[in-house]
Design a protein that fits this description.
GO terms for molecular function: 16S rRNA (adenine(1518)-N(6)/adenine(1519)-N(6))-dimethyltransferase activity. Its EC number is 2.1.1.182. Pfam families: RrnaAD. This is Ribosomal RNA small subunit methyltransferase A. Strand 3, helix 3 and strand 4 form a beta-alpha-beta unit. This protein is of the alpha/beta class. About 40% of the residues are buried. It folds into 2 domains: about 180 residues, Rossmann fold (3-Layer(aba) Sandwich), CATH 3.40.50.150; about 55 residues, Orthogonal Bundle (Helicase, Ruva Protein, domain 3).
Amino acid sequence: MQNGLAGHRARKRFGQNFLHDEHWIERIARTIDPKPEDTIVEIGPGQAALTRKMIAGAGYATAVEIDRDLAAWLKETFPDTLTLIEADALKLDWTQVHPDARLRVVGNLPYNISSPLLFHLMTVADRVIDQHFMLQKEVVDRMVAAPGSKVYGRLSVMLQYRYRMQKMFDVPPGAFTPAPKVTSSIVRMIPKNRDEMPPVNWERFSEIVAAAFNQRRKTLRNALGKLLTEEQIKSVGVDPTLRAEALDVAAFVKLANIA
């Protein structure tokens, strides 16, 4: 480790696994492809493996780091090319991060907060160009899963309503220090334009999707029994004897829009 980081140990409470393999660092950077004047915001820069590539491509970057020791080192190492936000990304008011800019968000997300953080970032989806994240492979597989898949679920539906999702490639445990016990994957998320998303009451949509997948083996008739009648489900062309995993995003939107 460089410049004052020799004694820094990955902190379990922050879910730290530092990317160190130059092959994978370079491949991820090429996938993101930062350009001059891009407003790059990196979550959890850690020991700056990816940060250096983002700065090299864009000329400047912003980073959100919760670890005080790493934050101090980052400020010292990149005094002129990195704006550091010392905060928990999960509690950060993202609407105040470069509020007048279109953001490109990147990061190696801690596995223990990945899902809530992805939902939290939806608050700024309207001005995000794209998001590239490294996450646990199982989580990415769920994010991009198609209807009918065993891993298709609430996370799939909610994120696919708002974003176009693409799994890019897997990253092996050996690319990190310390090596995690799981394989990681890179996912690309591109927010949809408003005209690509059918109007829906978000709270109702969330409620319907959560209830439908809460007990996956139940039919929609039973899973949604407290929210919709069988007749209402049929009224929008959805078969109430199906299970949640058989429905695409558009079908859930129809269910949520029943008056």
